Amino acid sequence: MIEVEHVTKTYRGRRVLTDVDLTCVPGTITGFLGPNGAGKSTTMRIVVGLTRPDSGTARVCGTPFRELRNPGRVVGIQLDSRALASARTGRENLLLAARTMGLAQVDLDEVLGRVGLAGHGDRRVADYSLGMRQRLGIAQALLGEPEVLILDEPANGLDPAGIVWMRTILRRFADDGGTVLLSSHLLHEVERTADHLVLVNEGVVAASGPTRELTASGSTRVSARELDRLHQALAERGLTVRRDDDVLVVDAQTAAVSRVALDERVELTELTQHAGGGLEELFLRITGEEAA
Ligand SMILES: Nc1ncnc2c1ncn2[C@@H]1O[C@H](COP(=O)(O)OP(=O)(O)OP(=O)(O)O)[C@@H](O)[C@H]1O
To answer: Domain named ABC transporter: which ranges (predicted)?
Structure first.
């Protein structure tokens, strides 16, 4: 369980997080999304006690991270693959982590094999590719058999097979009752992996909810000869409508829009569904960015 409540953070007078709330429950994967500089890493750093918030609280399994007695046994963290000791081998990195956590018996060959690094354990991490470092970071995060995983951009640098592997590992971890929070820029990947999504923009949580609900929010572009009358009729039925020149963009499925037009006997000149846009469309709408 991860609970972030009313977290606010300012850097040199500049507000980077405003009243951020975030809850990740056992058995689920939460995808944390937002454009560059939105505040994802800062939020994650606050959860794991690396950054202090100005106000608000963050708890992992009911306890502030800094008060956990053996944090590695509770939370597996991968915030930056550059944090690995690059002059040491993969095996040495894992051994150090195991000792820090007080783990007595760890079969490092088994662990390395589980993350696809069998045969690479005795190479220096400096010679690893980015994807290999990510795999080692995941191995390190899982080493203490924690209840919670917090991963910043874990798919970064992974090849397609690696991404599928990562998805499988995280799904299994959550299905076994674990809690996962991961940030990513790969919208389609997050859409496939996460059960819940939290979208942050300029330090504010702009949307959150079950992935299926957030991505199902398709919109319809509609145009008509009597556009004002249609606009009014759609709004009167509680639909969210934005005007884009001589087109209305309605947060609803095509069928709902055409039913209103039929009721009102308004003749349509255009009716298009934007269904497949899903998360990408939601993301762009929330962040106000133009599709390149
Ligand atoms: N130590 C710091 N000192 C000053 N400003 C900081 C510091 N850390 C982060 N920031 C600022 O806080 C804001 C949020 O940064 P953060 O790294 O949390 O965003 P992010 O969503 O993780 O971005 P990205 O997707 O690019 O990794 C940015 O404007 C960043 O410049």
So the answer is: 2-227
